[in-house]
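Q: I'm writing up a methods section and want to include an example of the input and output format. Could you take the sequence below and give the corresponding predicted structure tokens, formatted cleanly so I can copy it straight into the document?
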Amino acid sequence: MAVKQAVIAAIMRQFGHPRGAAGRVAGWVMAHRRSNRQRNSWVVSLLELQPTENVLEIGFGPGLAIAELSRRAGEHGHVCGIDHSDVMLRQATRRNAAAIAAGRVTLRRASVDQLPTALGGPFDAILAVNSLGLWPAPAERLGELRRRLRPGGRIAIASQPRCPGATASTSRTAARKIEALLQDAGYTKTRTQTLDLNPPVVCVLAGNPDPDRGRSPPASDPTS
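A: Here is the clean output for your methods example:
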């Protein structure tokens, strides 16, 4: 029993940054757990991705959301993703091999505080599912990501608290913290959606302000 508990504890520690054999097991669990699949598919649906849009995922894990994003983006959109784990990069690459070969998906090993310039942009949408809590200086990171969004673009930050004893109240508290971080980083029109799992998943959506929206067109030159 003690050995079994030690193995389980070692795997649980891997979810933040999977490495080695235990990390591969953690990745398999993330890819096959029903609630994880529900959560990723739901968050992607909230973005209402259009077929020509470009999207970036921060912390793609085993690549579940990447696969769904790629399906929705179609042939004319593009999906990028970063993750700081070599193990997750390999698993996500295998899961999305056909889309990568077709040039519709680009995956990179990188951390959110060192975004590769080669990722390009600006993006129409950015998402992160259960990774914000691992970011260093999340307010700064959200500000940097906003600069990667086109004006009028949107972001989705999802969280399903995994701390012992987490409840619906824990999820609501997480949502309020995410909302505050997004607003401090300059995002607008924040709104929260909830997926009824145990504990509930919260997803806070927000937009990157478009400075030209609502601006009156220049007056015509009467002499022209």
